[in-house]
Every structure is written in C-alpha cells, then in structure tokens.
Amino acid sequence: MRLVHSLRNDPDSAPVFSEEDHSIWNTLFVKQLPQIERWACRDYLEGFSLLGLNEDGIPTLEDLNAQITPRTGWETIRTSVRYTDAVPWYHYFLDRKFLVTDYLRSRDELEFTPEPDLFHDIFGHLPFFTLPHYAKLQEIFAPIFLRTNEKYRDHIKRLAWYSSEFALIREHGELKAFGAGLISSISELSSVMNGSVPLLPFTIDNVIPHDKSVWSHNDQIFIIESIDDLIYELERYFESLPKVSEEVEQLTTEELLRDIRD
Ligand SMILES: [Fe+2]
After folding, report:
1. Portion of the chain with pLDDT greater than 90, in percent
2. Looking at domain 11-253, does it have CATH number 1.10.800.10?
3. Domain boundaries in the chain?
C-alpha cells in the first residue's frame, strides 16, 4: 500500500521566516562551519558542498530538493510538527521523503537543543541525502520498522539514533563525525571530538542495551568503520526480526501528523 501524502510543498503555504530566524541560522552556521571542516566525515563534507548551504539564511526546500532529488530520488517535505512520531516518520521514509520541521531553536539554545529543529534537519542531515550510498543506508530502516513489533521497533530506533544521529566513523585511522545530531550540535560535537565521551564499536550487541539520550548529551558514542559495514551489520539483524505483517498499514492524515509529544 502506498503512503497517503498529507504534506505537500506548496509555495503559497511555505512559512515566512523572520529576520531573527535568518539571523539565528547565520549565527549557527558561522559557529559550526569551522567545527565541521575540522571534524565532519568526508561524505558529509562532499554532500555539504553539493548542497550549497551557506550562511545567508534559511534555504528553501525547493532549492534543497533541486540538489537532492536528481541525485538520490529523495525529497524533503515541510512539516509544522515539531517532533514527528517514529511511525509516521518511517512511513515518509518508505516513500523516500525526509520531513523538515518549520521549528527553529531560540538564541538561548544555540549550543544544544534537545528538540531537533530545522537547523538540525537541514544542516545535519540533508548534505548526506545527496549521496546514493548514504540514501541506500537510510532506505533499510523503514521496511522492517513498519512491519515488526514494538519491542524491535524500539531496538531499531536505538540503532538509528546511535548511527545516523550520533556515530563516529573511522577514516584513515582518524575518527570523524558521522551522525547528523553530532554534526548539528555545537557543544556535543566538540565534547565528543575532544575525547570526553566513552567510545565503543558499533555492533548490535553493544548498541541495543543503550537507551536514547534525548534530553542531554549522550554518555556513550559508537564507532562505525564504513557505511557498507554499517549496512551489513544492520541488514543481518533486520533479517532476523519477526514481521507482524507483510503489508505496511496505511495511515490516516491525522496519524501521519502525529507529534511524539501527543
Ligand atoms: Fe535527526
């Protein structure tokens, strides 16, 4: 069954960001640029340059999609929901749609925000979505998440959290930031890269016992060796999980807009 598209990028309904919003984007961008040039992984930096992000202000999704969709088939979709629940989130993923929230942090939260905002979504995640081998990684989560039971959904969320959001990757013997949560967090990126957080190899057995640290910095970070290794590790595990249904249930518009805080 196909997803019912409840969200559209209608230019007439796009939010108008204030001068202060664009100025916050500029401040975040200027603060984080030297850190990512120093610490972000090669793939991220390649995608960053392809995507053409800059300090001038919040980019339009139209401009972002012009760089992303021809390369990987993924598309960004705007949502006014601040923190989308994992079930609708993965429904959009199944359709290669990445939701970008309209919410932007305030000046009090420049260094760290527990709530993913549009700076996290755009600056942290979207450069990667210009790269076909990264898109392939993101395409393996939704099919199993939407068919397995609650216990294993929780495991999948942890595996996504400690890989796509917060992992480090080894490059030529050096550790670089891979996770979008790290890349978009001024304080957590510097804390991890300065050696303040314990590190372990990313394996299923290492990650699953660790719950997500949504409201504070993570007290454990995991290292992947390569995207191909990560896909191999995840696929092996996903294939072993029980499927409660073969078909993915279609959601109502209301369910697709479910906020995690409901
Ligand atoms: Fe994220």
Report:
1. 79
2. yes
3. 11-253
